């Protein structure tokens, strides 16, 4: 089934007012501080191919997209420092891209006319693993698939609790919080960071001790691009048994899928559900795809499933026993025979346009609600889907120790990712129909989702929630940021803004949904 940034010694406190002269000076500065072949200007023959290399949504390649002045393909931390320093000196902002999965493309485009450069970290990819040790240093441009492969081959008794999509960049995943299939056992991605190295707005490289605990807290789920450029993460690895089990169960409307979803809601609330077991659900058209990952053998899973979710009818024939590494390949590619080496493929396919939104649910939808959802919405659009990620356990249980800015914890049943896909033109008739359907579905689920605020997931960026307003001083308004940021970060927004004011008061690291500095009232 197809599944679709410690104290800043800042250089200048004035607003950045770029001009053609400053753009030329920026480019000259870059080429004087790093190899010129790593800087792709718009006139370069390879500019478009490098720009497109990790764009995941073709609608951001249209003529209406504001394109960068150049792309800096950093292959060393010194190149990142050069880009930041040249940008500050000459009034050119940076958009920082690792995996390119930003759902609104803000890591490589600007919505409003602006002179900016893309700092592409794809060449900064490497994983330093010591066999038997429970940590690894990971470069910021590494994808989750590359991380999984390195850990699973060099340190097979360990795992990192990441997400299901192998081409997502590690930095993007962590800086937005990072939910995944193993978070009930190990917490979200941001909870599993031991250290980091960041290039701040002065172009200096800071580790955890130098940056301080406030900034270290902020970058692990508060939108890392708001505070600087993280160039490496030291990640905590957790022990994993040699055999894990993956089960895929497809159930249709005719098989009582609404009833099963209502039972699933009850199951993920059950105190008897072990944290080693996760059952996520993908809803599309007339069916639900129950995807189970159990950190143990099939026989143990079946004994547990019979006690907590017998209605699903899981059997031994459904089980796929394998190593954790092979399981991550299976979950992403949908084929148990896919070799783990496929996780190293960074190639993207630009065939499908899409738009995504997100929600959090804290009270059960119930059978009637699920039935109405299928009858009125999902069954009427085969190109729409919903992904339900269960919470609880280490990420939101009663004894959860909150160590990162990810706020959607205690009391959350599950996260919803909505998606609507279409083919053809970015803004044609098919796009309009797909977006109307998505807005309608999102509106329908409002009666079951959280409210005041209606919570959303920062990693599923959605500009429909609001955008920053930049004042005459060139600094994003804290008040305008509240409109969208309290949905992503809730009560953590003010603390994040205070960190921003401490490390980047002139708001150099800025985009349409970056954390604004907390003003001095």
Please give a structural write-up.
Helix content is 30%, strand content 19%. It is of the alpha+beta class and 521 residues long. Among the domains are: 20-120, Uridine Diphospho-n-acetylenolpyruvylglucosamine Reductase, domain 2 (2-Layer Sandwich), CATH 3.30.43; 127-239, Uridine Diphospho-n-acetylenolpyruvylglucosamine Reductase, domain 3, CATH 3.30.465.10; 243-320, Vanillyl-alcohol Oxidase, Chain A, domain 3 (3-Layer(aba) Sandwich). The strands form four sheets. The chain has a seven-stranded antiparallel β-sheet. A hairpin with a 5-residue loop joins strand 8 and strand 9. The radius of gyration is 22 Å and the shape is globular. The model is unreliable at 1-18 (pLDDT under 50). This is FAD-binding PCMH-type domain-containing protein. InterPro entries: BBE (IPR012951), FAD-bd_PCMH (IPR016166), FAD-bd_PCMH-like_sf (IPR036318), FAD-bd_PCMH_sub1 (IPR016167), FAD-bd_PCMH_sub2 (IPR016169), Oxid_FAD_bind_N (IPR006094). Keywords: FAD, Flavoprotein, Glycoprotein, Signal. Residues 64-240 form the FAD-binding PCMH-type domain.
């Amino acid at each position: 089934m197809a599944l679709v940034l410690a104290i800043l010694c800042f250089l200048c406190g004035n607003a950045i007012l770029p001009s053609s002269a400053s753009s030329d000076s920026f480019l000259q500065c870059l080429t004087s501080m790093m190899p010129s072949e790593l800087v792709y200007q718009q006139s370069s023959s390879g500019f478009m191919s490098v720009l497109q290399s990790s764009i995941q949504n073709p609608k951001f390649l249209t003529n209406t997209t504001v394109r960068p002045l150049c792309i800096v393909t950093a292959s060393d931390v010194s190149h990142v420092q050069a880009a930041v320093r040249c940008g500050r000196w000459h009034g050119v902002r940076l958009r920082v891209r690792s995996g390119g999965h930003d759902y609104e493309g803000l890591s490589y485009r600007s919505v409003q006319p602006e002179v900016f450069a893309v700092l592409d970290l794809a060449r900064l990819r490497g994983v330093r693993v010591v066999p038997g040790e429970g940590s690894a240093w990971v470069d910021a441009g590494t994808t989750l698939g590359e991380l999984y492969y390195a850990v699973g081959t060099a340190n097979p008794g360990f795992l990192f609790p990441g997400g299901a999509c192998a081409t997502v960049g590690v930095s993007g995943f962590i800086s937005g919080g990072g939910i995944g299939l193993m978070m009930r056992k190990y917490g979200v991605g941001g909870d599993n960071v031991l250290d980091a190295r960041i290039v701040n707005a002065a172009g200096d490289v800071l580790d955890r001790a130098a940056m301080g605990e406030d900034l270290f807290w902020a970058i692990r789920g508060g939108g890392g691009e708001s505070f600087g450029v993280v160039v490496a993460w030291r990640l905590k690895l957790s022990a994993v048994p040699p055999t894990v089990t993956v089960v895929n169960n497809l159930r249709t409307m005719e098989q009582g899928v609404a009833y099963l979803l209502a039972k699933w809601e009850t199951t993920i609330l059950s105190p008897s559900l072990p944290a080693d077991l996760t059952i996520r659900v993908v809803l599309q058209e007339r069916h639900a795809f129950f995807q189970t990952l159990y950190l143990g053998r099939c026989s143990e899973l079946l004994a547990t499933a019979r006690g907590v979710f017998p209605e699903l009818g899981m059997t031994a024939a459904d089980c796929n026993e394998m190593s954790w590494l092979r399981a991550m390949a299976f979950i992403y590619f949908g084929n148990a025979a896919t070799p783990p080496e496929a996780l190293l493929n960074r190639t993207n396919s630009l065939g499908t346009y899409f738009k995504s939104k997100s929600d959090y649910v804290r009270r059960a939808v119930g059978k009637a609600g699920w039935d109405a959802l299928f009858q009125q919405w999902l069954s009427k659009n085969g190109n729409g889907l919903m992904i339900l990620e269960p919470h609880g356990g280490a990420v939101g249980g009663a004894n959860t120790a909150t160590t990162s800015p990810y706020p959607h914890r205690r009391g959350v049943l599950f996260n919803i990712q909505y998606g609507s896909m279409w083919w053809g033109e970015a803004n044609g008739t098919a796009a309009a129909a797909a977006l109307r359907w998505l807005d309608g579905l999102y509106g329908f689920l409002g009666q079951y989702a959280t409210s005041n605020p209606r919570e959303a997931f920062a990693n599923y960026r959605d500009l429909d929630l609001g955008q920053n307003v930049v004042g005459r001083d060139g600094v994003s308004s804290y008040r305008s940021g509240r409109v969208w940021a309290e949905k992503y970060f809730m009560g953590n927004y003010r603390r994040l803004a205070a960190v921003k004011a401490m490390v980047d008061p002139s708001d150099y690291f800025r985009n349409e949904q970056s954390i604004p500095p907390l003003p001095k009232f």
